[in-house]
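Example 9 (inverse folding). The structure is encoded as follows.
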C-alpha cells in the first residue's frame, strides 16, 4: 500500500493525507534532501461482516469522502526513542477533509513534516468530531462515544492506528475498521389468502415486554484507539444508562417476500449502530416487539390490532452486521375428516332375529 509522496487515492479506496510548519523544522532537517511532508495512506478494511443485522448511515469510503465537516481525525505523538508512546504532541485531532480537485486530495492544515530521527505513533478515527480536541494524551487514548437516541442521527464509527512510523516510511498506512455493530431488519408474512392484509405498525427493540419496558442498549462507551483489533476495544461499565429504540412506526402492508418499508436504503437509512453488547442467555436481555393490524375483507369483515414479541439471544460484536428477519404469520384454519365406523360391524354385529313357523 505504500505510495510515493503526494500520490492520489489508490485502488482499495486509499486515503492520502499530507500532514510543524517547514519554517519550524528547517534546523532539524537533513541537508542532503528537502523536507518531506508526512503523508498517510489508508483504506477501509472489509465492510462489516454480514451475519444474517435501520435510520443511521454506513460509513464506507465514498461516504467518508463526502463528509465536508471532516472525514477523519488524527492524533500523532513524536518520540525521539524507540519506545511506543501514543499521545498528541504532533497531531492533536487534526481535521482531514477530501477534495477531489486538490493535490493531494486529502487535506489538512498546517502541513507537518518528518524529523530525520525518532518516530511517530498514530491514532485515527472517523468521522471527525471537534469534541475530541485535547482528549488524547500519553495517559489516555480513549474517546467517549455516545449512541444517538434518534436513529436517523446515528453515526457509524471507524478507528485505526499505525505505530513506529519514521521518515523512511514516507507514507503511513491506516487500516480503518468498524467499531460498532450494525443491525437491520426485513419483514414478511405467510398470509396469502385473498382479502387478508397484514399491516405493520411499529417495531420496538427493548429490554423487556412490560408496559414500561426495561431499557436494553448502552447509551455511551469509551473506545480505546490504541487497540489493534476489537479485543477490549470498548469499556461501558462507567455508563449505566440504557435506551430502547422505536425502530419503525407507520403503516406498511407486508408481503410474502422479505422486504423493508420503503426499501430504498439510500433514502430510508435506518440501520442501527450500537456499541457491541452481549444479549446471549445469562447476559443482558433484548426483545423485538412488533405491532401490526390484521384486516379481513372477505366474508365477515374484521380489523384486529395485535402485538407479538420474541427474545433475541445474540452477542452483537464489533464490526459485524446483523439482519433480524421478522415473519408475521397467521394460523390457517385447516380441516381434517374421518368417518366413525359402524357400531357392531363385522363379527360383533348386534343380532336381530326374525322367524316364522
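The amino acid assigned to each position is listed next.
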Amino acid at each position: 500500500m505504500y505510495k510515493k509522496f503526494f500520490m492520489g487515492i489508490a485502488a482499495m479506496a486509499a486515503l492520502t493525507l499530507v500532514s510543524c510548519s517547514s519554517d519550524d523544522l528547517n534546523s532539524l532537517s537533513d541537508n542532503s534532501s528537502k523536507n518531506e511532508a508526512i503523508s498517510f495512506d489508508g483504506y477501509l478494511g472489509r465492510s462489516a461482516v454480514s451475519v444474517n443485522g435501520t435510520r443511521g448511515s454506513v460509513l464506507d469510503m465514498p461516504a467518508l469522502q463526502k463528509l465536508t465537516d471532516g472525514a477523519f481525525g488524527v492524533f500523532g505523538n513524536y518520540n525521539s526513542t524507540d519506545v511506543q508512546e501514543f499521545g498528541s504532541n504532533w497531531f492533536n485531532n487534526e481535521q482531514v477533509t477530501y477534495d477531489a480537485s486538490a493535490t493531494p486530495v486529502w487535506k489538512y492544515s498546517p502541513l507537518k513534516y518528518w524529523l530525520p530521527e525518532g518516530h511517530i505513533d498514530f491514532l485515527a478515527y472517523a468521522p471527525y468530531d471537534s469534541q475530541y480536541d485535547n482528549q488524547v494524551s500519553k495517559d489516555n487514548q480513549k474517546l467517549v462515544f455516545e449512541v444517538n437516541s434518534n436513529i436517523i442521527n446515528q453515526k457509524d464509527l471507524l478507528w485505526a492506528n499505525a505505530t513506529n512510523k519514521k521518515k523512511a516510511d514516507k507514507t503511513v498506512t491506516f487500516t480503518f475498521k468498524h467499531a460498532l455493530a450494525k443491525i437491520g431488519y426485513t419483514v414478511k408474512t405467510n398470509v396469502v389468502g385473498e382479502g387478508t392484509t397484514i399491516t405493520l405498525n411499529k417495531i420496538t427493540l427493548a429490554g423487556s415486554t412490560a408496559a414500561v419496558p426495561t431499557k436494553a442498549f448502552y447509551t455511551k462507551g469509551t473506545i480505546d484507539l490504541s487497540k489493534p483489533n476489537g479485543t477490549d476495544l470498548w469499556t461501558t461499565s462507567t455508563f449505566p444508562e440504557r435506551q430502547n429504540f422505536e425502530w419503525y412506526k407507520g403503516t406498511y402492508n407486508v408481503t410474502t417476500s422479505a422486504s423493508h418499508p420503503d426499501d430504498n436504503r439510500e433514502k430510508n437509512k435506518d440501520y442501527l449502530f450500537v456499541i457491541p453488547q452481549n444479549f446471549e442467555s445469562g447476559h443482558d436481555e433484548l426483545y423485538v416487539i412488533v405491532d401490526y393490524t390484521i384486516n379481513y375483507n372477505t366474508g365477515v369483515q374484521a380489523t384486529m390490532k395485535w402485538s407479538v414479541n420474541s427474545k433475541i439471544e445474540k452477542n452483537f460484536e464489533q464490526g459485524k452486521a446483523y439482519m433480524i428477519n421478522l415473519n408475521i404469520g397467521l394460523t390457517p384454519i385447516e380441516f381434517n375428516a374421518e368417518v366413525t365406523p359402524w357400531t357392531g360391524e363385522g363379527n360383533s354385529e348386534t343380532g336381530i332375529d326374525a322367524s316364522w313357523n
